[in-house]
Design brief:
alpha/beta; 15% strand
């Protein structure tokens, strides 16, 4: 059952003041759940920040960040990509993270911008994207001039394959697709959400309090959760990663970009990010040495370092 037009809370995870839920259709009719938050009372409006979450996330995880941004005078918009959170799922088994092509994610972002942000939110517009959300944003910064600036945490420019050769992931996913197994979860991933796993040793955050906060929210509202990616999702991601390596990006993007990398990264490949930075003009970068992958769910010191970089990058001229 979809969780459209609802905002979920627990005692530890309250929605920001004035938060309102929305539902918008993508071009193919898929329904997308979104939230908008006004600037904090008494602050001068500085524009709108559009938060683009990562794979398998849901916008409730960003309540704290939304409040941080609202206190800075920003209107905030968050939403769930198709196949996760409260948006329309792609498979009957809602725990499987599934997509056919990242062009479908492009359609999601276009719908949110054209139906919510541009018509009803104050400019200028700033993107704040995490991991897969950052990847999707980069796909659109070649030809869309929606944003004045963009900040990306732990961008997905390639996966951290560990000891496995990168070509093997593409071979396995392509073979699975050819065998009709595109909707199956790839080996090594749980069907259950990662927040249902033990905290100790997790690759996402060193901050137990925020982990427990989000885990409780998901346990009380399991309909928001999704598990491991399918072969089809991985294959689509690998094809999109190859596209991001094309010459189209070597002439630059439509707005300045700040990439914030996690020094203790174990999910994405920071070397691929550094290579993208080297060949793409108009991008600055900061590395937070003590951070794991989910920088905005990390400890207070990491988040303070992030917001120092964010504030400097987004300050008005």
């Amino acid at each position: 059952m979809e969780s459209l037009n609802r905002i979920f809370e627990t005692p530890e995870s309250r929605a920001p003041q004035g938060a309102a839920a929305h539902v918008f259709p993508a071009a193919d009719g898929v329904k997308l759940r979104a939230v908008s938050v006004p600037p904090a009372a008494g602050t001068a409006t500085r524009g709108t920040v559009v938060i683009m979450n990562g794979r398998a996330e849901f916008f409730e995880r960003y309540y704290e960040t939304m409040r941080d941004l609202a206190r800075r005078g920003f209107h905030v918009v968050g939403f769930d990509w198709r196949g996760q959170g409260g948006s329309t799922r792609q498979l009957k088994d809602r725990n499987r993270g599934h997509i056919l092509s990242f062009r479908q994610y492009d359609s999601d972002l276009r719908a949110i911008m054209e139906l919510l942000v541009l018509p009803s939110c104050p400019p200028p517009y700033i993107a704040l994207a995490h991991s897969t959300g950052g990847h999707i944003l980069l796909r659109n910064l070649v030809n869309k001039n929606w944003f004045q600036r963009a900040v990306i945490t732990s961008p997905l420019l390639d996966f951290n394959y560990g000891r496995w050769p990168p070509w093997l992931a593409f071979l396995l996913s392509a073979t699975a697709l050819a065998a009709g197994l595109g909707g199956s979860v790839i080996p090594g991933y749980r069907k259950a959400p990662s927040l249902f796993s033990p905290f100790d040793g997790n690759p996402l955050t060193s901050e137990r309090r925020r982990w427990d906060r989000d885990a409780r929210l998901l346990k009380e509202h399991p309909e928001l959760g999704s598990g491991g990616p399918t072969y089809s999702w991985i294959n689509a991601a690998l094809r999109s990663i190859k596209q991001l390596g094309s010459g189209a990006y070597r002439t630059g993007l439509t707005c300045p970009v700040l990439m914030v990398l996690a020094g203790r990264e174990r999910i994405v490949d920071n070397r691929a990010t550094q290579e993208f930075l080297r060949r793409t003009p108009g991008i600055a970068s900061v590395t937070i040495n003590t951070a794991l992958h989910e920088i905005l769910m990390e400890n207070d010191a990491v988040r303070a370092e992030f917001f120092a970089a964010f504030d400097s990058f987004t300050k008005q001229d």
